[in-house]
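Sample intake sheet
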Amino acid sequence: MKKPLEFIGMVLLVAGACGVLRELTGGWFSIMGFTRWIIEPIGFLEGRELYAHIVVAALGIAVLGIAGRHREHRS
């Protein structure tokens, strides 16, 4: 269970960080355009994309923290 949590946490962290960079640079990094698919379809987040990406990155950090505390019990 630890590896999937680490993967999900890293994906969220990278997506959030890329989204923050994209929003702060006005979309200058076109390679980071995949972050639009995460936030833009949610209508009430219009105009708040930067904050939404910060939340996604923070969620990624939280999931990585949970993965770090998770112990695998082997019998």
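Comment: The chain has a mean pLDDT of 83. The two ends are 15 Å apart (CA to CA).
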